[in-house]
Amino acid sequence: MPDRSRLSFDLDVDIAVVGAGLAGLSVALEAARLGASVAVLEGRHIGWNASGHQLGTVMPGYALPISELIARVGFEDTRELWSLSKQGAELVRANASEDLIPGIAISEGALEVSNVDVGDQLISRLQMLGEDFETDVEGWQVDRVRAELKTDRYFHGVYYPNAFQIDGRRYIQGLAALARRAGARIFEDTPVVSVDASGIRKRIVTPSARLRASHIVLAGNVHLGATLRRLSETLLPVWRYTAVTAPLGERLTEAITFKGSVADTDGIDHFRIVDGDRLMWASPETTWAARPERFAPAIARRIHKIFPQLGRPEIAEVWGGAAGHTVHGMPQIGQLRRGLWVTSGFGRQGLNTSAMAGQLIARSILWGDERWRLFSPFELVWAGGATGRVAGYFIGMWNRGSSAAAGTLARYRERARTQERIREARLAQANRQAGTRPTRPPPGRPLPPRRSEG
Questions:
Q1: pLDDT tens for each residue of 167-224
Q2: Do 89 and 135 form a contact (C-beta atoms < 8 A)?
Q3: What is the widest separation between alpha-carbon atoms in the chain?
Q4: What residues contact residue 127 under an 8 Å CB cut-off, 6+ apart?
Q5: Domains of the chain with bracketed CATH
């Protein structure tokens, strides 16, 4: 990447983007490709927060389950929203090619596993995804899941063959390089002091220069800060820390043979193999920041708990960042007022959603595309401030505890069923053996007289 460039002179552009994360760079890249003049203002450096520290899994969908999405906006709008999420995944794949971003390290397939035995629910979900939402999915029975993931912690699974993984760090830097190549100008170490969205030409003040634009896109997530506090407070900051183990050698293939990413339905475990024999593993979420190194022992214990055959793996590196979660569980995408746009709230949403949002907003500004209005029902809602963070922490603890209890009960029931089948098999075998033996009279009774022959 080129040396960091700070905005040190006044500038006029068509579109100004605040924030050089996945969402902001996606807007900048699409708008620049469509011929607009674009400037991106970043207070620190490209991808410094959660955007540069993610597992790199790309698949369709949102944080809000489909059933709840249908209840909120109806079946037809849910189909449209789901179609947009698939388009977002395709856009990432188009950008994340080896030709455009060398070393992106694409691997195919994603598996979502259940912590409890929910075979009946799996069938209905597969039917909905495959028939109603035209998504390629496969249902995996318990035996197949455990053939790939050698642990009794997981039961059924949903496999997405068209999902894929990329090197997240290379992708964010590659996205910035593509945006620059398309003509966008990216200024780092340039925090925004104030935003004046009135009038036809909007104004942004930075410590060393002023910028004017016809449109301003706020993509700063929870870090918009005091300048735009009312917006930043609609997001609950949630940190997730990710670790990469030291090389595990043959031990890893004895525990995991699946090459794609794995996530459980409760959002607790998320992992995949990297560099051939290392394991990348994300910790559960927390609403409080801490030094990433503090989470290394906890992640090592979690790996050992799920895959005892790996022992306590050595952790080579840990990193993390804060993502913004919305109260309603959907991203914030749209126009706040004429010429002022927002794209944020991508916690738990995935790389596909930020890419799709960037394309939607750029095409709305330049082409008049109105599909962003599908997100209008998910308005800005205050996240509760410090009280919301405390509540989020305890809700997360409760959910993890509930998941652990449900998983323990499911494994107990599975063992009980197995033992019952073993007892029934032994009893059936004993009955078969008893049926083939010659009958003998009870002890103490004389034998019947033998009939004379002839």
A1: 999 999 999 999 999 999 999 999 999 999 998 999 999 999 999 999 999 998 877 7
A2: no
A3: 128
A4: none
A5: 1-102+166-235+327-383 (3.50.50.60), 107-165+239-325+390-425 (3.30.9.10)
